[in-house]
Amino acid sequence: MRKAIGWIAILLPFALIMGEYIISQLDLLNNPWFVKTNECYQVYTYGSPFKASISHYYYSSVGEIFTGALGTVALFLFCYKGHPLRKSEFGLSDKVMSKLAAFFALGIVAFPTTSKHCIEDNLRVFTSSFNTGIIHFAFAGLFFVTLAFISIFNFRRTKKVSEFGTKPAHNIYKYCGYVMLICVALILIYRVFLRDQYEWLDSIYPILILETIALIAFGVSWLTKGKVYKDF
């Protein structure tokens, strides 16, 4: 289960980008063999395969990949038990932390992100409001923060409480957690202080890049934990 969660996290951003690119190159959404094209429907206009953020793929031709991946991760996290919290250990148990992360993942899907501008390649019949976007952003931030804490604290526990953080793989968990926290902080700084003043930054997709880095860190942490399970 840990490996499955890790691979989904790492592959998700690349699957979204490549999926959007392939569908646009094959023009599948305007192909009468795949979809009904007649006077009732307008010709679908494809956008860039690179979106403002991972969450913006919700509105694109690969929106189901986005929601399906998050739903699958949420299901796995809900089922994940890990290890119980022992006396003198800091934080919450693996079970509680994973369920919190699962709840936040579902919140990301239930409250889609918003957009400053009209989404030209929007397959949905709506675009979320500013208020819904704020809720989405909060869920996304809490999701990554929870995952970061799992890596920094929960994954570094051992059979002996006194050996916390002493295994060779523990540095990987720690640094993956730090990377996720740094990415969340940089995204917050960009959204609050930089985005409106430096609109040219949108052209390099800073949020998409930072979210991809955070997802890779998330995935590496869980893949590593899956491989060294026998050590704890």
UniProtKB/TrEMBL annotation:
The entry's keywords: Membrane, Transmembrane, Transmembrane helix
Residues that span the membrane, as ranges: 57-80, 96-114, 134-155, 175-193, 205-224
Name of the protein in its database record: DUF998 domain-containing protein
